[in-house]
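Quick start: load a record and inspect it. Here is Penicillin-binding protein 2:
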Amino acid sequence: MNLSSGPDPQERVKALRIKNNVRLSIFFFIMFLVFSILIVRLAVVQFIEGPELSKAAVQIGTKSLDLVSIRGTIYDAAEKEIAYSLPTQSLYFRMEKTYKSEQDEEVMKLAQKIKTAFDKSGIQQSKPMTLEQIIYAMDVKGKRTLGIYPRQLKTNLTKQETAYFMEHRNEFPMLEVVEENIRQYDTTPIAPQVVGHMKKYKGITNNLARYPYFEKLAVAEETKNSYLASEEVGVAGLEYMYEWALKGKNGAREYPVDAQNRIIGAGKITKPERGHNIHMTIHPEIQKRTQQVMIDHLKKIRNSSNKYEYAPNAITAYAVAMEVETGNIVAMANHPQYDPNIYQDGLSEEEFKQLGSNNLNGTVREVAQDYGDKKENWRHPSSLLYLGSTMKPLTILIGLKEGLIYPNTTYPDTGVTYIGRQGRQTPIHNASRKANGVVDTREALTKSSNTFMIEKVGNPLYKTYGKEKGLKIWDDYMKAFGLGQTTGSGFPGESPGISDYMQEGQSGQSSLAYASFGQQGKYTALQLAQYTATLANRGKRVKPQFVSHITDANKKVVKRYGREVLSTIEFDEAHWDVIEDAMLAVSAQGFQDAPYTVARKTGTSEQDVYGGKRVENAVFIAYAPVDKPKLAVAVVVPEGGYGSYGAAPIARQIFDSYHSVYGLTK
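Running the structure step on this input writes:
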């Protein structure tokens, strides 16, 4: 039997050697490929991608610090600084964790530590921060500031305070001293509701719809990063209206840094561009005198023993003085006023409550004065008032233009007339139920006959055209004189007024009857001033101007503003003469000895308020001198009683002030 034997041992060794040699060759080949790829890649990195990677490395190792631009200055017409920016140091608190409440033990300890630090800084502050104020400013619950944004604890730090917190940074890692600009306002103050005020940009980002200018910037790709969260921006008045000019352009300081965040080379600075300056048309002497006479006169009529002058609830007043030719607003006064500097350190709850509505400009929008209780506020009129008899010059013009009356039209004024259907008629009286006897068109305006306006203009307009067309005609005339639409000034938040004659549920006769003597349209003091200037301009409606020109940082003029006629309405010269003659003869307190000729009209508008109460508001308009008008003035005093007593004396002081500065000739 043959037995087969296994593989030859030598053959097995030979085969194994060949197999290992193949594996080793494959291994060396793979290593060759890997090293070849690495060498090629290294060459690409060094010679092709090297510059870009170096640039990226610099970018990653760069520390950037934004530099906020210095805001432009606001000057009055005498070239005095009213609002200006100064560099300052502010202390900010960073929210590094979430706290349960303001009474959290950790919050209390931190606030006390910060207060102790202020006390240790060695400064006797004129207004030292209390523990409660520090906790309020920290805003740990995010009531006023979003959690991601630092909270400003204090601005305008003293040198000692700045040095202390800089030296003790390790003890206060959550605090940061930031250099920024602080806005300073004239402490007089000069027209604060016109100038406006500022807030941190972070404080308005939740409500950008309220600020169309900032909303537009925020959604555009090229402008969405125009502002820093901690940067102050204009949110009211001219500060907001001219934000585009005042802002300037932010800069930056960039440094290369190493892994330990240490500066390792020369920095690059992009200098910020200073904002432009705006020069107001408001004259300080005229504005100050207007503000002071308001205070004095309101006090007088609240305590007067004269029954015609006595107005115990007259605590507010609004006045506008507008140049007839240029449209320049030389005075725009609100009473009460406020100090815009209060916004520098942020408002406490108590300060905010005390401020009330005083920061709002009642000469251009509706403002309800704060009487301390919301229900009590409803018992008093706002700044938006019926014009009363100051409407009558326009009523007469409409009647003359439409051929409803003529200069020699006469009317037996018994002091009362009636509107409505037979058996359901409503009596309407003249002021004080006075019967003026037979009056012509001029006398009806001079003596302020309500019944003439109704029987000779309001009712005939309704009977001639009917309700819809009659009201449309009336409304067109109102708008031609700036009533029922904004003045075109562009002032933020300006109201178009309220045209009550267009509301539903009224008969055409009733609407036009009440409108004819000024009881169906509520308008602002600025609208009233533009209306008066349009009378003086004999139909030319001029745009109100708040700024005369804009200059750059070198005081070079970059933009000028001048007379701008918005619309023109034609009337016969004889019709204008009727109005002017009648207004020259109007009796008004304080104008008996005026050294210049004044066309004027008093008004006492009635208004029903909450609780069934009816109040009387003082309204007054005038322009001077009559032969070549220079200045138009409008004054409204809610609950001021008769216009002749409650408003006219304020206007006289405004004219005298303008006369002393610019001159009014007979």
